[in-house]
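Hi R.,

As promised, here are both runs. First protein below:
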Amino acid sequence: QMCIRDRYMGNKSIFRSSMNPESNNRPKPTISLAEWQRKSSEVSIPKLQINKLIMNFFVVEGYKEAAEKFQKESGTDVSNLDLSSIEERIEIRSLIHKGQIDKAITRVNEFNPEVVLRLLCV
């Protein structure tokens, strides 16, 4: 059983090639502005869904204060979100961006050990 971490340490290019957006050279489909406006006017999105989307953005991107204020103003249910985890997420993301993968894995393991177990061994 090989783990992702072992593959990463043995061949760092595995991740670079699979995550490189330029490796996919297929042309992207495009539509005109008029077509976009016509299609978007046909879609009705409930306010609750929009609020959940906004809240998800704040949490995922690490805007804790904005998430807390938006929750108070909009009344969006955050019972399934842990706003206190935002700082840990920011720290882990920062370690990954710095290339400190071992430290990031350690922090994820301290924060939520189940995530590391699911991701590392396939």
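And here is the second one, sequence first, then its structure tokens:
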Amino acid sequence: SVVSEWESKDVGDWIVALGLGKYRESFVREEIDGHRLLSIAAHPTDAHRRSLRVTRDDWTVLRKELKLLVGLSNLPGCSAPHVEDETTSTSERETGHDEE
């Protein structure tokens, strides 16, 4: 899906996929949807970091990922990377196939 159309749950899933799941609740609580995420990505500030309660080290990682996400979202005909949902089995992730 297109990042600007993400709901806060989608943003939370993306945060988890980055390995930063401990911040999921902060993003959901602050109602960070795709539009707001792209706005933060365009001009990330220390105030954003503090309001989302993200450590400086994790903020550095998050800012890099945001830049990548913005770059992908600006490519013609390109949508956001697929975020696996928590119900995807380990073997499905490894092989790309459902377990039978």
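A quick note on the second one: The CA atoms of residues 11 and 25 lie 10 Å apart. Let me know what you think.

Best,
J.
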